Hints:
The protein is mostly beta strands.
Amino acid sequence: MKFTLRTTIALLLVAIPFASVRADDSDKASKSIDSESLWITAIDGLDNQTFVAGTATGLLLRPSAVVQFDSDTPNKFEELYQHPAAVWTVATSSNGKTIASADYKGNLVVYDVESKQPTQHDNAFERWCQKIVVSPDDQHVVAGNESGKLFAWSLSESKVSKSVELGKASITCLAFSPDSKQVAATDGEGNVHLLSWPELEIVAKVVISDETAWCVAYENQSSLIIGSGDRNLYRVEAKADATPEAIAKGTDWITRIAVSASGQVAAAEVSGRVHFVSGGSVTTVGADSGVWALDFASPEALLVGTRKDGIAIAKQSWTLTARTPESDTATE
């Protein structure tokens, strides 16, 4: 009898006990809190082990916080700083020196990691901002707001250095291309806009669906993955006149997408399902509540931020199966 390590992957959603640590009592025992009171709205990596998350409660005009956690203990939080309204998006610089976040009122907070000093810029993006990203050179925060306006905020000058109107629909998500020369922006009318960087000149607009295009990520330099309100996950070339192809079908609108360093695509639904797309196959796992944040901690582990149940981890596992001599002979 032989044993064979099968190449199929099982993905398990692992719930982690929920706790919180404030910055001023980090040396004390962790304080348990009600997980149903905290909404994880965004996750981004600060370094290989440390991540930050945006939080909110059910009332979006209440103060909220940006927290830090270790990928091994994803629900043991250290509060870094607060916002006057619900944090909706958080982004980190590639050098790990800056954290930026925007809230439901359009306020921007820039946090210096070394000095632990947050600086709040009231109404920096004018209105509710669903997504910000730090530019690849760590010099700008790029943001899109609910009135269809795209901003480039200069971190050195602490002001908007450039802005462009993409339309009247809300900008829902942003992503930089791997070569750092292009920005993709999805909107509430089902489009993806392609802009040059750093010029922010519109290169193309591709129609994805009649429903809201909620999220976007570059799969590679020439291909985008987009999640739609029509419950489909699409792949489309990052160029004018491209035709989107549906590669997976969910049961609710797709809220977030993450692509690992190894190219694994993960997409989450507002219902709580998480889909892993590889080649022509789709593996689906379920969280206990709606998913609003995704980020790969490693190629084998996905951090899943939920509406009511903190952060879960989806992990890969391999199974070892026995093969009889008869089955080996049959295969040969």
